[in-house]
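A quick aside before the break. I want you to see a complete sequence-to-structure record at least once, exactly as it would be stored in a machine-readable document. Don't worry about memorizing anything.
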Amino acid sequence: MTRAARIVLQDAKYAIARHTETLQAEEFRASWFAVIGLLRAVGHVLDKVDAKSSPVLEQAIRTKWNQLSASRPEPTIFWDFIHAERNRFLKSYEHGIDRTITIPTLSGVGSIKLDGGNARGGWFAAGHAFNSVITSGPYAGQNERTVALAAHQWWAGYLNEVDRLASNE
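That is the input. The structure line, written in C-alpha cells, reads:
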C-alpha cells in the first residue's frame, strides 16, 4: 500500500486548508511553498519510500509513472500545475499567483491596488481577503487553493490506481 505517499498527501491537504485568502507577504509565500512542495513530494515519496516496501508495489509504481510520463503534457494538473509550479518556486523562488487587494481612497475617487503575494517586511489590510488567482497556463484566472485541492484529488486517484495495480499482480 502507498502508505508514506498518503501521509504526505494528508499533510498537503492540511497545508491547503490553512492557505487562506488573508495570507500575505512572507506568510503567503511560506504557505504556498509548503502546499506546492508537499503536492510534488507525494510522487517523490511514492518512488523513494513506498516502492521499497515490496517488489509488487515497486512494479505498480513504475508502471503508473511510465504511463504518466508517456502521456505528457496530460494530465495538465500534474505537468502544468504540480510539476511546473514546484519547479518555478523551488528553482527561482517565483510563484505564478497574483494576490492583490484593491482599497478605495478616502475621497471615494479611485483606488489603490496592493500586491500581497510579493510584499516584503510587513502586512497591510490585515485580516482582509485578497483576490488571488493563478496568472498563466491552463489554470489562469482560477484561485490557487481551488486548483491545489484538485491536485490533491488527482493524487488520491493516482495512489488508488497504484494500489489497485499492485493488488492485481
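Two observations worth writing down. The chain has a mean pLDDT of 92. The chain is about 60% helix and 10% strand. We'll return to this after the break.
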